[in-house]
Design a protein that fits this description.
Layout (H helix, E strand, L loop, with lengths): L6 E2 L4 H12 L15 E2 H11 L2 E6 L6 E7 L12 E4 L18 H7 L7 H24 L11
Antiparallel strand pairs: 1-2, 3-4, 4-5
Length: 156
């Protein structure tokens, strides 16, 4: 991971598309900020993601020496993990050259003029994303256990 202390305004595409649709229904063109107006750190998103599969993490260290270590595993959604495993590491290659510490939009105008408010929380979005990835992982494991070759994309 790169800078996990970065603050981001996380939002769900479904909410953002709804706002775009509302913008297109206006009689006159206007500019609106598409955002939730709420920030969370990348670190929080990582912790929520882990919790969705029953994993509790402890972050230790500082800067590029920081790690995220498994403190507990509940349920059977993370069978390969055990207490003490380091599953998060900071890597300078993933720091953005023009890193912005905080990104936060003000959707006030959209709320006022369009009546738009985000309906999906970042935690709900995270749960949805993890559930999708977990289903993919289970599908791959099933195919592999039956002798099929499974292509898994990885980021390099």
């Amino acid at each position: 991971m790169g800078n996990i202390d970065s603050l981001r305004d996380w939002g769900h595409a479904r909410d953002y598309v709804k706002m775009q649709w509302l913008m297109l229904q206006q009689d006159h063109p206007d500019d609106f900020v598409i955002a939730t107006g709420v920030q969370y750190t990348v670190r929080q998103f990582i912790a929520w993601s882990a919790a969705e599969v029953g994993v509790t993490l402890k972050f230790e260290g500082h800067g590029v020496d920081e790690t995220g270590t498994v403190v507990s595993v509940e349920g059977n959604n993370a069978p390969a993990l055990k207490v003490g495993d380091v599953i998060v590491r900071i890597d300078p290659r993933y720091f953005r050259p023009a890193e912005v510490e905080t990104l936060l939009g003000d959707p006030g105008k959209a709320k006022e003029k369009l009546g738009w408010v985000p309906e999906i929380t970042v935690q709900e979005m995270c749960a949805e994303m993890v559930a999708h990835d977990l289903e993919e992982a289970k599908r791959h494991a099933l195919l592999k256990s039956h002798g099929f070759s499974v292509a898994v994309s990885t980021e390099h």
